[in-house]
Specification:
- The structure is a single chain.
- The chain has 302 residues and is α+β, with helices and mostly antiparallel strands.
- Among the domains are: 45 residues; 61 residues, no CATH class; 85 residues, no CATH class.
- Helices cover 63% and strands 14% of the residues.
- The protein has a 5-stranded antiparallel β-sheet with strand order 1-2-3-4-5, with helices on one face. A two-stranded antiparallel ribbon has the order 6-7.
- Helix 3 packs across helix 5.
């Protein structure tokens, strides 16, 4: 923009200078035609006086250099002001353009956010509807919780009583451990700080342990009474099918009689089989078939 302004001023001043030079050349008396001048004084007529008056008037109406310079300065200043106003207008237009562009970007971002929020709100509405259904189900469960508790507590007590009776009637293995487990269940059922589901879970764990006893074999040391004599023996339990014992020297073996609830001695023929069974239970020998006495309805079977 500054380059165009300088070019305009240079052209303008060059034109004014040419105009001044041309005007000065036209007004020079040396360039006018000089007719022969008579030495005698000219006769001044009334017509000549009128012409002189007109020439004087023309000279008075002819602009001077000062007037021309003043006019040029005024024109230049007016042009400069116009250019400045044009620059200000262009700056204002640029600012408005930038503001408009920013507003368009803000508007587009607002549209995108609105669409995203609309989709999100629809998804939330579905979740809220689903949660309302869940809350209704939970409310119904809470309404039935008191009734369920009144029903489950007697059921848990009955399970503990049944487990205690089962241990008492079962084979007499690990009696201290099993009886202590039942006693613990009887205690926790009365603890208010233990939740009802936790009480039920512990009872079920005790039942699961008793079930596992029926699928395993085990060997352990214990002191028993046989014919009113105490012996420290190794006891072999095969599930809940049979329990046999053998002394540490391998000379005496016996079996638990389920009907008489007492230990009885076995013939020495079983010593080798029972000894091998103890080694298998202790994982000191590979599994194999062994001969053990099985009592059913008071009869012994091999």
């Amino acid at each position: 923009m500054e380059k165009y302004i300088k070019y305009f001023f240079a052209s303008y001043f060059l034109g004014i200078s040419l105009f001044i030079v041309a005007y000065a050349a036209a007004d020079d008396p040396a360039n006018k035609e000089n007719p022969d001048i008579e030495t005698s004084e000219p006769v001044v007529t009334q017509e000549d006086e009128g012409n002189k008056t007109e020439e004087n008037t023309d000279q008075q109406n002819t602009p001077t250099e000062a007037d021309i310079e003043k006019t040029l300065n005024a024109a230049v200043e007016e042009k400069i002001e116009a250019q400045e106003e044009a620059v200000k207008s262009q700056n204002t237009i640029d600012e408005l353009t930038d503001e408009t562009r920013d507003m368009v970007l803000v508007y587009r971002n607002a549209i995108r956010k609105t669409e995203s929020l609309t989709s999100y709100n629809k998804q939330l509405a579905k979740l809220v509807d689903q949660q309302k259904l869940s809350l209704s189900s939970i409310q119904r469960q809470l309404e039935n919780a008191e009734e369920t508790q009144r029903t489950i507590v007697p059921f848990i007590n009955k399970m503990i009583e049944t487990l205690e009776k089962f241990v008492r009637l079962d084979l007499p293995f690990l009696l201290d451990e099993r009886r202590q487990r039942v006693a613990t269940l009887k205690q926790i059922i009365n603890f208010p700080d233990i939740t009802l589901p936790d009480k039920y879970r512990r009872v079920m764990e005790a039942y699961q342990i008793e079930i596992e006893y029926g699928r395993t074999i085990e060997a352990y040391n214990d002191t028993i009474t046989v014919d009113n004599e105490e012996y420290t023996v190794d006891i072999l339990r095969v599930g809940r099918l049979i329990m046999v014992f053998q002394t540490s020297d391998g000379e005496l073996s016996g079996v638990w009689n389920k009907h008489s609830k007492a230990w009885r001695k076995l013939p020495s023929d079983y010593n080798r089989s029972i000894g091998k069974g103890l080694l298998i239970a202790k994982k000191q020998a590979p599994p194999e078939l062994i001969k053990l006495p099985v009592s059913i309805l008071g009869k012994n079977y091999e």
